[in-house]
């Protein structure tokens, strides 16, 4: 438990004020250290922000794939209601006329008879055999058992749980409930329905007596198109023609004609350069605030070197007129017209410039981020050292204050004692004086 000292008891000395003044003098070095720590903490905070900005632009650059930017292809349709397409870098540049003859559709077949109620049941047991043709020569067979007393929905559930090519459902005609069988996906079969020859994708034997036989509601049909003046139709079981040409997929939407053009797609180049400018400007703006007149890092080589180095690395873009450089604050903006012109007239030159920018900045940023991290660590070490000194000084100051208060308390006690003695002497002298005066009388 700390000692308790009460000052000013004698009224002779204001020991509390004296001690406070002495402590203020003793605290001056501590105050200076605290101020120095605050400055270092502010510098560390700024360095952390700068490191983050540098790391952001470095990550952005590392994720840029220059080859992809300059090898991407696009497929443009003159009528997107007829067809659309996608291309890859391997698709040749071309323009071709495409006529969509038919769209793909799945076969739909229903029973010719049905049940008057969903709760009605089959009168006998049996095995339903479904045949699904995957092309004109091959098929798969599924056997589904049913029993007397089962409902139409029970049969539907059994069909759907036994295979994935045929989708069964209940079909209501308005008077009765029938079995409807459709292809689960047109992609599973290339065979087309031909009612004239009784050629179907879905066939069934052994239907419950109550259902009769199957009739065709919709024919299976492949999508079909022709290119240019060719008389040879190209077919697909779905509305997407995969690999119509190398890397080219065409999706048809309705019958009709459209012109399809495959060409380079440089649309990502301008946006990439714009994003680069934004990241660059973020770093420059931060550096300006850190190195300006009276700022924390004015004249600090570690930071100012980055600012000058940043601008020098822009030379390829400046020389080609691809950016606008501000002499006022060092920020940049993209000259979109110049970019568009160069990517059309000499894309290889633009590619070389962007490759140089990516490589030079990436290399420099690796060194700069390392330097900032080191500089940040040095400042943090200084803060740790100051914290240790502050702790030591605070402990010494506490001991010093205790000693002062103890000494001044003792001084006050001594003064109080002297005052008491002085008072007694005064009383004695007064008494003696009065006694001597009485004797003379």
Automatic annotation (TrEMBL):
Subcellular localization: Secreted; Bacterial flagellum
UniProt key word Coiled coil: yes
Protein name: Flagellar hook-associated protein 2
Position of the signal peptide: none
Domain Flagellar hook-associated protein 2 N-terminal: 13-106
PANTHER family: FLAGELLAR CAP/ASSEMBLY PROTEIN FLID (PTHR30288), FLAGELLAR HOOK-ASSOCIATED PROTEIN 2 (PTHR30288:SF0)
InterPro entries listed in its UniProt record: Flagellin_hook_IN_motif, FliD, FliD_C, FliD_N
Family that this chain belongs to: Belongs to the FliD family.
All residue ranges annotated as the Flagellar hook-associated protein 2 C-terminal domain in the record: 220-293, 332-420
Function: Required for morphogenesis and for the elongation of the flagellar filament by facilitating polymerization of the flagellin monomers at the tip of growing filament. Forms a capping structure, which prevents flagellin subunits (transported through the central channel of the flagellum) from leaking out without polymerization at the distal end.
Description of how the protein assembles with itself and partners: Homopentamer.
Keyword field: Bacterial flagellum, Coiled coil, Secreted
GO biological process, alphabetically ordered: bacterial-type flagellum-dependent cell motility; cell adhesion
């Amino acid at each position: 438990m700390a000692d308790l000292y009460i000052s000013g008891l004698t009224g002779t000395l204001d020991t509390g004020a004296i001690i406070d003044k002495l402590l203020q003098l003793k605290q001056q070095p501590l105050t200076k250290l605290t101020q120095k720590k605050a400055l270092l903490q502010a510098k560390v905070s700024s360095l952390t922000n700068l490191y983050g900005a540098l790391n952001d632009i470095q990550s952005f650059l590392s994720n840029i794939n220059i080859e992809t930017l300059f090898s991407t292809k696009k497929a443009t349709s003159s009528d997107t209601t007829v067809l659309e397409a996608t291309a890859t870098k391997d698709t040749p540049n071309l323009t071709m006329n495409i006529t969509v003859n038919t769209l793909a559709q799945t076969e739909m077949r229903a029973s010719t008879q049905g049940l008057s109620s969903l709760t009605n049941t089959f009168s006998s047991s049996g095995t339903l055999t479904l045949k699904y043709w995957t092309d004109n020569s091959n098929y798969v067979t599924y056997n589904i058992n049913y029993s007397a007393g089962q409902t139409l929905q029970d049969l539907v559930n059994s069909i759907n749980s036994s295979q994935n090519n045929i989708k069964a459902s209940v079909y209501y005609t308005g008077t009765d409930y029938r079995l409807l069988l459709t292809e689960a996906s047109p992609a599973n079969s290339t065979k087309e329905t031909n009612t004239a020859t009784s050629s179907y994708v879905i066939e069934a034997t052994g239907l419950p007596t109550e259902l009769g036989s199957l009739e065709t509601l919709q024919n299976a049909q492949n999508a079909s198109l022709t290119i240019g003046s060719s008389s040879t139709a190209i077919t697909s079981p779905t509305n997407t023609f995969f690999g119509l040409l190398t890397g080219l997929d065409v999706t048809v939407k309705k019958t009709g004609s459209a012109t399809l053009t495959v060409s380079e797609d440089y649309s990502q180049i301008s946006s990439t350069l714009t994003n680069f400018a934004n990241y660059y400007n973020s770093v420059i703006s931060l550096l300006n605030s850190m190195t300006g007149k009276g700022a924390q890092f004015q004249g600090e080589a570690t930071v100012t070197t980055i600012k000058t180095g940043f601008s020098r690395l822009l030379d390829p873009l400046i020389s080609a007129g691809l950016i606008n450089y501000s002499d006022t604050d060092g920020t940049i903006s993209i000259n979109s017209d110049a970019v568009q012109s160069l990517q059309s007239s000499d894309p290889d030159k633009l590619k070389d410039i962007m490759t140089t920018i990516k490589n030079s900045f990436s290399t420099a940023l690796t060194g700069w981020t390392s330097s900032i991290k080191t500089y940040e660590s040095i400042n943090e070490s200084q803060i740790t050292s100051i914290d240790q000194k502050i702790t030591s000084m605070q402990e010494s100051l506490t001991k010093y204050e205790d000693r002062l208060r103890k000494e001044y308390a003792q001084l006050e006690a001594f003064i109080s004692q002297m005052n008491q003695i002085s008072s007694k002497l005064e009383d004695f002298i007064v008494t003696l004086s009065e006694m001597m005066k009485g004797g003379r009388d």
